[in-house]
Design brief:
By secondary structure, this protein is an alpha/beta fold. It is 25% helix and 17% strand. The chain is built from 16 helices and 19 strands. It has helices at residues 48-53, 71-103, 139-147, 157-163, 186-191, 212-215, 221-224, 245-257, 277-287, 297-307, 312-317, 392-398, 442-449, 460-465, 541-547, 555-560; strands at 171-172, 184-185, 202-208, 229-234, 263-268, 292-294, 335-340, 343-347, 378-380, 403-407, 411-417, 423-427, 434-438, 471-478, 487-491, 495-500, 519-526, 532-535, 563-565. The longest helix has 33 residues, at 71-103. The N and C termini lie far apart (74 Å).
Amino acid sequence: MATKPLSMSLFPFSLPHKLRNPNPNLLQTIHLKRPILIVCKSTPQLPAEAHQTSPIAQPEVQGTGAAAPTRGELFLERHQSVAASALVLNTDKNTKKKKKKKKESISDSLRISTGVASCYGCGAPLQTLEKDLPGYVDSETYELKKKHRQLRTVLCGRCRLLSHGHMITAVGGNGGYSGGKQFVSAEELREKLSNLRDEKALIVKLVDIVDFNGSFLARVRDLTGANPIILVVTKVDLLPKGTDFDCLGDWVVEVTMKKKLNVLSVHLTSSKSLVGIAGVVTEIQKEKKGSANVGKSAFINALLKMMSQKDPVAAAARKYKPIQSAVPGTTLGPIQIDAFLGGKLFDTPGVHLHHRQAAVVHSEDLPVLAPKSRLRGQSFPKFQAISGIMTAGDIRLNGLTGFSLFWGGLARIDVLKALPQTCLTFYGPNSLKVHVVPTDQAEEFYQKEIGVLLTPPTGKQRADQWIGLQTERQVHIKLDDKERPACDVAISGLGWITVEPVNQSLGIAGSNDEEITEELILSVRVPKPVEVFVRSPMPVGKTGGEWYQYRELTEKEAELRPKWYF
């Protein structure tokens, strides 16, 4: 070990007795075999000038001669000082680690555990014990994949059945689905997203255009916090032919602005035809602030298909993409996807809402609620007799006032007050038929035809277990402009009804000015948890672009308003 010269700042009385130098000029030539570590215990070290002018402030002399410290004492003191220094350094490291943890952008609820492998199709933890539970694989396959470190490539038995069209529900509780096996509650799935609001992430939120109000969470800020949102509106290819997407995009932005969310942009898309997906890809890659969390596996697959054209990472991820099925609750855990360089994508469990029709119908009737082809509005009144219950003459005289309209077995609309020219147009699954009967015969007709003509519920057995139309809401509609639709009445999980006060194409004799009412009154009946929304009319079909009116914006509103893309 190389020796070091003593510093000139040391005073002679601080040296051991044997090292005293009577000649100060020769002090620089004296060397020690070991450097002596001097520790200031409580008093801060003073500058050199203070030492020269104030000798009284020097550290306490440890003694010389017989009173000098022994080698053991010096050794113990040196080790104590090293331990104290290490403690200070560890404290600094712990502080830095805590700061680093606070900066982590992926929440613990979304972090993929390396200790427990999950099914790449649904996110459920893999297990070999319960064959009927999600995540099950046979033990032989599990051990083989584990041996070769390929557990991330395993698809569980439930996902294999879902991929072949089987309807296997897994979510129960408030917002779950009846009639099938319930392995996890809707509350537990919501808990997986509970910490998202406290983390920094880019949120990709999906909304079904057919069920816009029902699929748009009422308290979405409780989950997202202040995180930026890319709003993706799906299934726009199902809207009636001739829909003006300029008007539709403006309508979506207007509705979204009222919810006071941190929305970066709005995208009108179709996961089936890939329309609008490229714009979402560009926006995600531009923002890249964390994990993009979406709850729609069909959209994830479309996203990966588009991204794989330019990104080899996304092309590799397509081999093990999340499973896609018509069953709500397919995804049971967060699925990490390496979708692009420099970022990760998470397919998360959807937030299951108790106020949608899917939460009350039998699991085997769920496919009926999912539109499979372009929507065709069913407009009423129609001039034909239905089962001898009503005649065309009754409607030609009074319009729909005094009649009830059944939308399958899931909703009933009583027209209490309307104009003779008032028209109701139903937009929803084409398999759900609308039946019109006089209101005084409606209850008898419903009890007789539920499960038969009025479906879902389908069949006598499900009809006997049906909870019925327990909730009634009376809707008062003011007529400000009779030349355009007054509003939409949206039923959560089903579709919407456009209310046109005056439809000139009906061929009904016009009423006198004295008879024109300023208000329409409807009574809407649905199952107990299902919600009814009254909103501004959505501009769909060829006529939507004709009557839709753009709102004039101030400079500040135009600056803060999110852009929409199609």
